[in-house]
Design brief:
Elements (H helix, E strand, L loop, with lengths): L1 E5 H5 L1 H9 L3 E3 L5 H12 L4 E2 L21 H6 L12
Parallel strand pairs: 1-2, 1-3
Length: 89
């Protein structure tokens, strides 16, 4: 299983090394497309990709968790390869 994680975690000496060694995916909140593409490739290769709530939005406006589609796991569900297409919504 691979996890989407905040890019800052990957900059920490020990935690960053462990995260890279386990194949987890860094997410840059200002340029998240690269993480989305990597997660999609992992999903298509049969990997399980998980993510969770960040606790706050990029603007600091509060939690993005919940039914609004803000969590990475709900976004990743739109990429699931079993559906045969990638949703653009």
């Amino acid at each position: 299983m691979r996890f989407l994680a905040k890019e800052a975690v990957f900059r920490a000496p020990v935690a960053g090394w462990l995260m890279r060694a386990m194949g987890h995916v860094p997410v840059d909140r200002r340029a998240g497309a690269a993480a989305a593409v990597r997660a999609l490739r992992l999903l298509r290769a049969g990997e399980v990709v998980g993510g969770g709530c960040t606790g706050s939005s990029a603007s600091g406006a509060g939690s993005r968790c919940g039914a609004d589609g803000g969590s990475a796991s709900s976004s990743a569900s739109r990429w699931y390869p079993g559906r045969g297409r990638v949703s653009r919504s």
